[in-house]
Amino acid sequence: MKKTAAFLVLLFLSAPLLADNDFGFRFGLKASPNISWFRTETRGYHNSGADLGFSYGLIVDYEFAEYYALTTGLNILRTGGTLKYNYLIPDGTFEGEMTEKRRDHRLRYVEIPMALKLSTSEMGYITYYGQFGLGLGFRIHARGNDRVPLPDGSSLRTSDVDISDNTRFLSAALIIGAGVEYNLGGRTSMLGGLTFKNGFSNVLDTRNPAVATRPSALNNHIEITLGVMF
Q1: Distance between CA atoms of 93 and 143, rounded to whole angstroms?
Q2: How close are the terminal C-alpha atoms of the chain, in Å?
Q3: How distant, in Å, are the alpha carbons of 111, 134, 173, 190, 203 from that of 138?
Q4: pTM for the complete prediction?
Q5: Residue 21: helix, strand or coil by DSSP?
Q6: Tens digit of pLDDT for each residue in 130-177?
């Protein structure tokens, strides 16, 4: 993964040296509904449901050769998911007893993607593209809804909990996507695409005395991208 990141950074830095006068920057706007979930291999932790989210932002393509571009931008990304995990009740009547806590995560990031974009020639106003790269996110919001079942059959519920101290500030994901652009005239086009983001950094930043190891959970999501390029 580190080699992939280094390769993409090198491509971005070398783009001005490869550029031809016939190519250059294109800018666009996008909106992307998504569905996200957690993947975890920590014993005692389980994925317990997906979350519907949304992202929007700016697309910047740097076309350094025919059919090749470096694409980046700035997104506001809303993602999340639900985890169930072993939990020791900290205080009250059932202090120290084991239960299974459920937490719905609502996370928001400022995301900067970096990807290599490969396009076909235009065929009947339509251009097809694929992209591969990395996304780096900076957390700006982290809230959760908790449900803790108690041994007497009741449950303790809390809503809109600030979970910033339990989540990492940085996130990273592998980006794989494909889509189409429909030429509206000149360099203006509508675009639609499907993107999978495979998280490879731990979202959690906490210790749990009910499990033997430090908890780890990766966040994945699939998004549908709709936008316009200029």
Answers
A1: 27
A2: 32
A3: 6, 14, 12, 28, 11
A4: 0.87
A5: coil
A6: 999 999 999 999 999 999 999 999 999 999 999 999 999 999 999 999
